[in-house]
Amino acid sequence: MAEQENLTTSAFGRFLKMGALAGRVGFSLVGEKALGLFLGEDSRELRMAKSWAKNAEKIAETLGRLKGGAMKIGQMLSIQEALLPKELTLVLKTLQRDAPTVSARIMYETLDGDIPDWRERITEIDDKPLAAASIGQVHRARLTDGREVAIKIQYPKIDKAIFSDLKNLRRLFELILESMLAANLDHLFAEIEARLTEEVDYTRELKRIEEFRKFYADRPEILIPKPVPEMSSQRVLTTELTMGFSIEEARRHGQAEKNIWGRLLFRSLVEQLLVFRQIQSDPNPANYAFRDGGQLILYDFGSIKELPDWLHKGYVDTVAACRAGRFDELTTVLAALKVTLKNGEPVPYKHVQLFRDVLSPVFVERPYRFLPDRDPIKKIVAYNRENFNELKEITFPGDVLFIDRAIIGLVGNLTALAAEANWSDELFAVVD
Q1: Residue 31, Cβ neighbours under 10 Å: how many?
Q2: Which residues pair with 342 in a beta bridge?
Q3: Which of 41, 143, 280, 349 could be a cystine partner for 45, CB 3.0 to 4.6 Å?
Q4: Is the pTM of this model over 0.70?
């Protein structure tokens, strides 16, 4: 007991110091939550806590140099709680704070540089941003033709800050992941770098918007704001203003409407994954809005994961095996998805069986309702923590990182809506 108390005191002090260091870039740690991590844990978790206490200051110092890049990375990875131990998710969640807004005067300098005649194209613009994020912020405006638009503007030099920090970012990953995963981090880091490169290129995002609008052209229930190319550039993206209820506002609506919105969220992800083969990989609730009459609005196409043939086939085969009840084939399917043990052997079936057992109610119960007390992701998290030493020997390709992120985020959003449906029908309606 004395050892545990000494460790707790030491770890608590170091985490407080970590929070103070990280405060330079706008995030903090809540002392009581940090303290609670180390109370009543078994010896394995105490040893893990010692390791985190040892590296906390180094991690905080690295975060302090990453600025907007750190926040973006934290947002990318914090949703991977099902794959990571809670000590890591605590650090990552410190990066989820909203970005502070930048004055309109500074943001308009970017407009001056990229679209010199922008003042001639609009009749008014709100100095107060409609929304702010880690890479840029959105200002509401009206064009001379009367259209209301949303102008997303990158923070000055944020692209240079992110890319100059990639070396520090790699060091951060080594500090917090090298003792937790058997996999080489090169492929994971390459995937994150690729997504970051896309996110700071608004010309690429404009192209993605057009592709998604074409895919959903015959689906009036899926709305994607129309871009305004003449008011867009690499650092500026303008779309027609398309507003709806936030997910928090949607939660206060009737169950029937929430069920419709939930089905739309579910189907949109399945369609992107299995049909379109391009997936909107940022499931932040702010990237969705809802309208009466059963409409879903999709925002933010900066982070899009394309599925190569082998990856697409792996997910199709996974669905087919589950549909036919051939769960014993899943270890082979996982191997085709490059998910194996470090020594190349298949993942033991007992770990695969967990996902079958956890997910079966979702697709067997008719209907199934997503609720916090039966969240399948939480059950997977608990299993991962109980079997950490075995599971850390599993390697996986970087390609699945953002797909898993999207799937986990979908479950979170469906739980927020308490959506209810016959989910197997929704899934197979897309597959068929």
Answers
A1: 13
A2: none
A3: 41
A4: yes
Strand segments, DSSP code E, in 21-125 are: 122-125
**Amino acid found at 327:** F
Residue with tokens 């638009």, as numbered in its chain: 149
In one letter, which amino acid is 263? R
User: From CA 299, how far away is CA 303, in angstroms rounded?
Assistant: 11
- What is the token pair recorded at 175? 């500090």
From 165, 282, 300, 399, active-site residue: 282
First and final C-alpha spacing in the chain: 59
My answer on whether omega of the bond before 376 falls inside 30° of 0, hence cis, is no
| pLDDT tens profile 375-408 | 888 888 778 778 877 887 888 888 888 898 899 8
CA distances from 87 to 16, 62, 103, 109 (A): 14, 17, 36, 41
Q: Mind listing the pLDDT tens digit for each residue in 18-68? A: 333 333 222 222 232 333 333 344 444 445 545 544 554 455 555 545 545
Name the β-bridge partners of 222. Answer: 296
User: Contacts by 48-54 with C-beta closer than 8 Å and gap 24+?
Assistant: 48/85, 48/87, 49/7, 49/11, 49/87, 50/7, 50/11, 51/179, 52/11, 52/87, 53/7, 53/10, 53/11, 53/14, 53/15
Phi, psi dihedrals of residue 97, rounded to the nearest 5°: -65, 150
Give the Cα separation of 243 and 350 in Å (integer).
Answer: 46
Question: Coil, helix or strand for 131?
Answer: strand
Structure letter (DSSP) for residue 346: P
Q: Return contacts of 101-106, CB within 8 angstroms, 24+ apart.
A: 101/128, 101/129, 101/132, 101/137, 102/132, 102/137, 102/155, 102/156, 104/128, 104/129, 104/139, 106/156
